[in-house]
Structure formats: C-alpha cells, structure tokens
Design a protein that fits this description.
mainly alpha; two-stranded antiparallel ribbon; about 220 residues
Length: about 220
C-alpha cells in the first residue's frame, strides 16, 4: 500500500479550498461507529505515552518552533491562539515572545508582544490615521451633500419655472426664501454661501444663483 505523510499544516492548506473544514472531518471520523481504528491520541493511546524526548530531539523541536515563530504561517497563528487561550501568559509561566513590526504609517520598526494587535509604532501614528480617516469620511459626506443640493436646486428650478423666470432681479428674496426653506427641511443647511457654492462651484451670491436658475430654466442645460 502506498501512503504519504502529510503535516497538519499541509492538511490545513489542502482543506482551505474545500467547502467543509478539516475539524468537521476529524470529528466525524472520531465519532463515527463505522470506523474501527482507535482514534483517540489521549493518554495511553498517545504514541508518545510515557516516553521521553532525547536531548537531540528536544533541540530539533526547539529549532523548529523558533523558525515557526519567525514565520507568518498558519502554524504560527495557531501557536499565538494557543498561547492566548492557555492562560500560561497570564499566570506568568511563559514569557510571551516578541516580534519586530513595521509601523503602517511612518514605517518605523517597533517591537511588540507576538499576541498584540498593534500595527502602529505610537499613539501619535494611530491618532494621525484616525484623524485622516475621519476627515476623509467628512469630506466625502460634504461632497455628497453638495451634489444632492445641486440636483435639488436644478429640479426645483424646473418645477418652479414660471416663478423663477418671473422673479425680478431687484426682488429675489421671496423666491430664494422658498427654495432655502425646502433645502433646509431636507438637508439641514441654510447657509446661502454653502448653497451657492454647491450649485455654482463658488460662492457668488444670491443674485448669481437666481441668474443661473433663470438661464437653466430657459436652456435646460448647465
Ligand atoms: Zn509610526
């Protein structure tokens, strides 16, 4: 019979592409009444029960473990999880290994406990990133509101075409007020400078806004 020895890590990789997990397969195997082989590896069923490693073997295992800590493999992930859940760190029985990481923002190298989820070298760097993200969201949001206001003013102009076209340039307040009221109800913005900037690209004042609306209702293009 041909057989092939596969490590747990290699198995995990093979199972990564399958729609079921390695764990569920192992559990089925262990619990099934149709498998006769003894599947438990605990206690006296452990192939290494009551046997001791030689010094040479211990050294090989140690070397291998060290190289795993340095890698970014699935095994390392499991070792970190194992450390966290074992409680040995909390009890002070094991000194948590450290590793060198590169700050996501300033690219400075820094040392952290292997179990840490830090990706920035300092509070300054994580703070800067948080502020930048918040600003980006704010700018996006403002941009979106500007677009909405602009579309709203264009629609409103077409719906109120007669009113817009008949508004004398020396008496624009009633028309503008009606528009601003509706914009405020919808978008909570009443600053005319913000609104003219949204529609015209810059704050050119109320009169320019009405001129633009008149032109738009005549030509239907902007
Ligand atoms: Zn940094």
């Amino acid at each position: 019979m041909n057989s092939e020895l596969v490590s747990y890590e290699e198995l995990m990789e093979l199972y990564g592409e399958l729609p079921f997990s390695l764990n569920s397969v192992l559990n089925n195997w262990i619990k099934s009444e149709h498998t006769s082989i003894n599947k438990s590896l605990k206690g006296e069923y452990n192939g290494h029960y009551k046997m001791k490693h030689t010094m040479a073997t211990k050294q090989i295992i140690g070397k291998h473990t060290k190289s795993l800590w340095k890698s970014n493999s699935y095994s390392k992930m499991r070792m970190v999880e194992g450390l966290k859940s074992s409680g040995l760190i909390q009890k002070g029985k094991i000194k948590t290994p450290r590793e060198i990481r590169t700050c996501v923002l300033c690219e400075t190298e820094f040392e952290v406990l292997i179990t840490s989820n830090k990706s920035y070298c300092s509070r300054e760097c994580s703070g800067k990133t948080a502020i930048r993200l918040a600003t980006e969201i704010y700018v996006d949001h403002r941009h979106e509101i500007h677009n909405l206001i602009r579309s709203y003013v264009l629609d409103w102009t077409l719906k109120n075409e007669e009113l817009v076209l008949s508004t004398p340039l020396n008496r624009i307040t009633p028309t503008i007020s009606k528009l601003l009221e509706e914009i405020f109800l919808l978008y909570r913005i009443k600053d005319i400078r913000v609104i003219t900037k949204a529609v015209l690209g810059e704050d050119l004042g109320r009169k320019e806004l009405i001129r633009f609306m008149k032109k738009y209702s005549r030509e239907k293009i902007c």
